TrEMBL record, chain A:
The active site is at residues 178, 296. HAMAP family: RuBisCO_L_type1. RuBisCO catalyzes two reactions: the carboxylation of D-ribulose 1,5-bisphosphate, the primary event in carbon dioxide fixation, as well as the oxidative fragmentation of the pentose substrate. Both reactions occur simultaneously and in competition at the same active site. Residues 157-464 form the Ribulose bisphosphate carboxylase large subunit C-terminal domain. It holds the Pfam family RuBisCO_large_N. InterPro entries: RuBisCO (IPR033966), RuBisCo_large_chain_AS (IPR020878), RuBisCO_lsu_C (IPR000685), RuBisCO_lsu_C_sf (IPR036376), RuBisCO_lsu_fd_N (IPR017443), RuBisCO_lsu_N_sf (IPR036422), RuBisCO_lsuI (IPR020888). This is Ribulose bisphosphate carboxylase large chain. SUPFAM superfamilies: RuBisCo, C-terminal domain (SSF51649), RuBisCO, large subunit, small (N-terminal) domain (SSF54966). Mg(2+) binds at residues 204, 206-207.
Automatic annotation (TrEMBL), chain B:
The lineage of its organism: Bacteria, Pseudomonadati, Pseudomonadota, Alphaproteobacteria, Rhodobacterales. One of its GO terms (molecular function) is ribulose-bisphosphate carboxylase activity. The basic functional RuBisCO is composed of a large chain homodimer in a 'head-to-tail' conformation. In form I RuBisCO this homodimer is arranged in a barrel-like tetramer with the small subunits forming a tetrameric 'cap' on each end of the 'barrel'. Heterohexadecamer of 8 large and 8 small subunits. Residues 4-103 form the Ribulose bisphosphate carboxylase small subunit domain. SMART domains: RuBisCO_small (SM00961). RuBisCO catalyzes two reactions: the carboxylation of D-ribulose 1,5-bisphosphate, the primary event in carbon dioxide fixation, as well as the oxidative fragmentation of the pentose substrate. Both reactions occur simultaneously and in competition at the same active site. Although the small subunit is not catalytic it is essential for maximal activity. Transmembrane segments: none annotated. It comes from Amaricoccus macauensis. Keywords: Calvin cycle, Carbon dioxide fixation, Lyase. The keyword Lipid metabolism does not apply. This is Ribulose bisphosphate carboxylase small subunit.
Amino acid sequence: MADGADVKETPRGRYSAGVMEYRKMGYWEPDYEPKDTDIIALFRITPQDGVDPVEAAAAVAGESSTATWTVVWTDRLTACEKYRAKAYRVDPVPNAEGQYFAYIAYDLDLFEPGSIANLTASIIGNVFGFKPLKALRLEDMRLPVAYVKTFQGPATGIVVERERLQVWGRPLLGATVKPKLGLSGRNYGRVVYEALKGGLDFTKDDENINSQPFMHWRDRFLYCMEAVNKAAAATGEVKGTYLNVTAATMEDMYERAEFAKELGSTIVMIDLVIGYTAIQSMAKWARRNDMILHLHRAGHSTYTRQRNHGVSFRVITKWMRLAGVDHIHAGTVVGKLEGDPATTRGFYDTCREDKVPMKLENGIFFDQDWASLNKLMPVASGGIHAGQMHQLIDHLGEDVVLQFGGGTIGHPQGIAAGATANRVALEAMIFARNAGRDYLAEGPAILAEAARTCTPLRQALDTWKDVTFDYASTDAPDFVPSATVS
Amino acid sequence: MRVTQGAFSFLPDLTDQQIHEQVQYCIDKGWAVSLEYTDDPHPRNCYWEMWGHPMFDNPDAAALVYELNECRKAHGNEYIRVMAFDSSPGWESVRLSFIANRPAEEPGFELTRTEGAGRKQTYAIRAYATDRPEGSRYA
């Protein structure tokens, strides 16, 4: 929707006191060619009735960079044309009347190196409450290599995590301890021991297990590490449990993380709600202390789920890869939580690939070069079970943690049997795939074959055979593969 | 007990034909396959002894299965694993690892504890097999 460049104002006209349209203040440049070092943000804007989309895009560019609502003469003390964000392209969203994709370029010097807090203070700081817009969503960002390289990136990364665990060639297996609240430390450790001994690589604290009256953090850590070490001795495998160090202050979190380290844990965990700065601090701590850092995306659906307003989870994924966590929950496709297959594929590519090409049908709007930043291990968790193993591997691939919480602990013969069922299903499916079988089509048959020599798997398949979560997705891509853009 | 390291330890022991299939999968992916053996299966013992170098330019899994049987003749009552190495940029590490041979008896591991302050315990895991000197374990 390039409706032509607006007539350039003379400096005298441009800086006269008063109010001026954002597009005339230099925030709309349809001829602008983004530099390789520019950060580009793609917003979905829904202007109020009667508001011109180009003016709305220019306003978003202005309010997320240098502008205020009126002209200020002090702009002229700066290289203001450089610091102005530039909306350079506005396209109607396919099949969504009243919505537009606005491309906005930001000069690299607008941002402090290596700070997610600073990046987000600009890009999502003020503009989301801007009155001329009904709604606004940050859909995607192009992060230039020059900026990517100012971040540490994942503390450990997929390759080194696998080397530390000595597990290659198959997804990792985990489970969240349930019930998520109420177990005493001693009872909690029992679940960890049974699940790890039965065949899982990891167990996990849930997002809201911190230090409550029924179980204080120190008690949990001690019992969990007893369980981890006993399970390692019972199997000969490296085991781990994500000890959630989320707490009220950084001092508390460091204290808990240090204790986890002293006890020999391989991994600690934080929640997204601790905030970007705390996440980056913990990522640096994890790198210094050879610790894998698991992130639970607690709270994200408050702003990621609706397509017209908020921040897409693919953007959160990008920020978290920069910030330096090692694990991130990124969807299951087939489980109980939101997860359109194509959109989820976009998240997984963003976690795991070094170069992610533009792919509109997966919701990826830009080529993204990660410049050798470590890979981020996606985690699939929420309403998945052994009977879906072929679909999970097809959708999510090999470098992923598959977490079966209820699908482990709810097994009719107990937790260890549930873990064994999942592990046998996983190994049988990977084995079949490598042996050249059409594992997706033959999935149920492959599982049935494996169940012949594994009673726990037989029982798991019988218990959960009809469980599916088949609802329409609220966060599907706007483009289908055949659609053309612009 | 059964040491369950590697990708396929929860499945019944693999036949040579099945090992051939898995190895050919790796070779077709461009990965170099090799064999390693040990009599100390401690979970953090990462350097098992190499049975020769990785086969960087070998197109046929039969060569590895042949070497596996040679390795079994010398170390048949130890653990032998298949490793596949991927030299691609951004990975440059192992892609697949699975146990292809194990001793007749697997005595397992002892978990020792040293009591510390504040209920803290320092744990150590030791393979019972290492009671005997290296080379005469699993004899």
